[in-house]
Amino acid sequence: MDLNFTPEEQAFRAEVCAFLREQLPPEIARKVHDGKRLAKDDFVRWQKILHAKGWGASSWPVAHGGTGWSAVQQHIFDEECADAGAPMQLPFGLKMVAPVIMAFGNPAQQARFLPRIVDGTDWWCQGYSEPGSGSDLASLKTRAVRDGDHYVINGQKTWNTLGQYADWIFCLVRTSTEGRQQEGISFLLIDMKTPGITVRPIIMMDGEHEINEVWFEDVRVPIENRVGEENKGWTYAKFLLGHERTGIAGVGRSKRELKKLKTIACRESSAGRPLIEDPRFRDRIAQVEMELMALEITNLRVISAEGEKKRAPGPEASILKIKGSEIQQILTELQMQALGHYALPYLHESLDPDWSGDAAMPAYEGDAGPLSGHYFNVRKTTIYGGSNEIQKNIISQMILGL
Amino acid sequence: MNFDYTEEQIALQDTLRRFYARDYGFEHRRAMSKSADGFDRAAWATFADFGILALPFPEDFGGLNGNAVDTMLVMEMLGRGLALEPYLSSVVLCGGLIRDAGSAAQKEALLPAIAGGELMFAFAHNEAGSRYALDHVATRATPAGGGWTLDGAKAVVLAAPSAGKFIVSAREGLGLSLFLVDAGAPGLSLRSYPTQDGARAGDLRLDGVQVAADALIGGACGALPLIERAVDYANAALCAEAVGIMAALNEVTLEYLKTRKQFGTPIGKFQALQHRMADMVIATEQARSMATLAAVRADSTDAAERSRSVAAAKAYVLQSARLVGQQAVQLHGGMGVTDELNVGHYFKRLTMIGLTFGDVDYHLGRFSDTLLAA
Ligand SMILES: Cc1cc2nc3c(=O)[nH]c(=O)nc-3n(C[C@H](O)[C@H](O)[C@H](O)COP(=O)(O)OP(=O)(O)OC[C@H]3O[C@@H](n4cnc5c(N)ncnc54)[C@H](O)[C@@H]3O)c2cc1C
Ligand SMILES: Cc1cc2nc3c(=O)[nH]c(=O)nc-3n(C[C@H](O)[C@H](O)[C@H](O)COP(=O)(O)OP(=O)(O)OC[C@H]3O[C@@H](n4cnc5c(N)ncnc54)[C@H](O)[C@@H]3O)c2cc1C
């Protein structure tokens, strides 16, 4: 038993930190630290910087243009990026569609799509959920009918995260209505510029536009854009769900937010004393910090077991997802609570990057504005990516055999 | 012991229920929240007609002599209706302060105007560094020419933009005093903004604001007990509002569990969700009991008993509200986090109630401290 990182891993961490100091644009880091709204260009710019360094895809093998890093190295990289205030590398291209293309796509698809993901050219979104098919994804109805060398798509996807920016969408579509519903699903890559696609915004309760409906009306998709075999899409989607492990717990980001919570608790006052000196509130911080300490070690245990190939990826990912999402929610809740009555104002402009405060409200800090909205926004984390109820079903059925 | 409402109380409840069902649907509320005022002036006029703006005032001043239980009943309905109207600020808090401590002349001049809906009030007490402590006031009152000069800043004054008058707390020497200040008074400036729950508030600055001798409410330098009583009353009212919201959330969530299908069956067939829903209902019933206790004790003349009960009730109700609000969103899946559905809006209002006049830690602390004294 040894909880220390090896000298090589420590040297790696130092290298990552040096890179972040030199290359992460401070104006982007500022936005991340202050919880401001990020523009599409912030994500793309950071991806291009990482790509230039050869670090565009930390979870990919070298053969496809990735770093070939071990799971522990990826963990260190994620942690340092989050701490420095780097924008999250969105998972849809890098961690969701790419592994499927690598495992089940043909060489032509690999050559066409993978380089444009790692260099930040193509923005991908995920088209799985439908209005009638959320937790019960396999019931999806969006139809793909063969017509010569094309599929013709009709139907609706929903909740597509940042689909308004997307160049491409990967979709599960129904190619057969016979037999078990899982056996009639195919995995398609669809150019968002194809005629017949309409993207409509869904506004979330924090007032932000982060998700969309995507409608398909007689959308023609070349057969060559199908990954793998027809009617085998469910297998590929499940491969993906069990595959993506590192990063799912969000330990790095939660550590950053915990730091921010402590900063706010030191700054805010409660009856003339810093809020952090109020034992009732401090205990709440302590409680979530213990949760996070445990999760960090759990995460590392899962990662190292996988790294040493002792075990195939299993349902432990559900533990990481449940705990990671709950911790994120509690952190935003405490950040909001720390503000006291200054959690009430809804200053939409405070999400703008150049908003740093209001002369008429000198005590209302520049980073206070987004905090209540964040709390409302992250209610999503226990719902998306397989809701926490579904994750518990997975644990009881797959791990416990109930 | 009797937990029944009187016939009059039931009638009032029905009137308000019908009003919200017929004239104040969710889309109407959304439009009102986006309007310049941030609430519905026509609804306010209707409230005047219903008499609820006169409810807690003495008959001598055009009121209906209602008690805190009457206020609870109204607040519960306003919670269900997700009302934007500043009933709490104008009627419960400021109206209550004038009723309890105003001079005969002040009551004569102000209570009928509040009751008639012509004059709206806001309570300017919180300050940036005060958090929830009621005695933490830095705004100063300096005697000047028979009256006072007020200097300072007030934070997150609920309903400030619609107020024709403010009740402002200020420190003179060691004590606190309360003053009536016109919204248009020279030296007073307001930075107003929407709140997370779609209502309005503002930050107030007072730079050399002059008030006359008759602006003082109650005696000079002795206002803290008045403020404590008014805020206890407001917290009891907020408990009732929260219960109304929780009941509404339980109804829509239960309906969703029965109608939303996944895996070929209504999701309400999954035992995990059945138990969650049962927990939400249990929490709401327990919260309703505490809100009732708070309402009954809010009228108590024993200040210690009053504040102990209200503190316990607010802390407890907020814990229930957190569970019900979060789980109502969760059980709606993706729909729960949208702006489109009312669930998110109920949740936001519940959350803001949890940060208004004391959060769960503040009230738990107040209640817990009384165990030492006992
Ligand atoms: C902000 C956000 C972003 C998203 N981004 C994307 C995206 O980019 N691409 C995409 O394809 N999808 C996306 N989703 C969709 C997400 O995956 C679904 O919302 C999720 O799968 C839940 O489905 P649903 O919303 O239909 O809820 P439902 O499945 O209807 O669930 C409603 C409630 O019932 C519970 N429930 C359902 N079945 C069971 C069961 N068997 N046992 C116990 N409880 C159960 C759920 O946990 C939930 O509490 C996103 C969602 C959100 C909120
Ligand atoms: C101290 C004590 C005194 C008692 N006194 C009496 C007495 O005076 N007379 C008498 O007749 N009996 C008595 N009982 C028995 C008592 O009523 C039973 O223990 C009880 O009904 C549970 O039955 P069980 O012990 O067989 O547990 P089980 O029914 O086997 O339950 C085991 C667990 O499964 C859960 N469970 C079972 N079914 C479901 C379901 N459908 N959904 C979800 N969870 C479920 C239970 O909640 C429990 O946690 C007593 C028991 C105790 C412990």
Give a description of the structure.
Chain A has 402 residues and is α+β, with helices and mostly antiparallel strands. Chain A folds into 3 domains: 7-89, Butyryl-Coa Dehydrogenase, subunit A, domain 1; 124-232, Butyryl-CoA Dehydrogenase, subunit A, domain 2 (Beta Barrel), CATH 2.40.110.10; 245-399, Butyryl-CoA Dehydrogenase, subunit A, domain 3. Chain A has helices at residues 7-23, 26-33, 40-53, 71-84, 91-104, 107-118, 233-243, 251-267, 279-307, 316-338, 371-377, 388-399, and strands at 124-127, 143-147, 150-161, 168-174, 185-191, 197-203, 209-222, 226-227, 269-270, 273-274. In chain A, the strands form 3 sheets. Chain A has a 4-stranded mixed sheet with strand order 1-4-5-8. Chain A has a 4-stranded antiparallel sheet with strand order 2-3-7-6, with no helix packed on it. Chain B is built from 11 helices and 10 strands. Chain B has 374 residues and is an alpha+beta fold. The mean pLDDT of chain B is 97. Chain B has helices at 7-23, 26-34, 41-50, 68-80, 87-101, 104-115, 224-259, 271-298, 303-331, 342-353, 360-373, and strands spanning 121-124, 140-144, 147-158, 165-172, 175-182, 188-194, 200-211, 216-217, 261-262, 265-266. Chain B folds into 3 domains: 7-122, Butyryl-Coa Dehydrogenase, subunit A, domain 1 (Orthogonal Bundle), CATH 1.10.540.10; 134-216, Butyryl-CoA Dehydrogenase, subunit A, domain 2, CATH 2.40.110; 224-373, Butyryl-CoA Dehydrogenase, subunit A, domain 3 (Up-down Bundle). In chain B, helix 7 (224-259) packs parallel to helix 9 (303-331) and helix 7 (224-259) runs antiparallel to helix 10 (342-353). Helix content of chain B is 52%, strand content 17%. In chain B, the strands form 3 sheets. In chain B, strands 1-4-5-8 form a 4-stranded mixed sheet, with helices on one face. In chain B, strands 2-3-7-6 form a 4-stranded antiparallel sheet, with no helix packed on it. Classes of the chains: A alpha+beta (402), B alpha+beta (374). Chains A and B meet through strand 9, helix 9, helix 11 and helix 12 of A and strand 6, strand 7, strand 9, helix 9 and helix 10 of B.
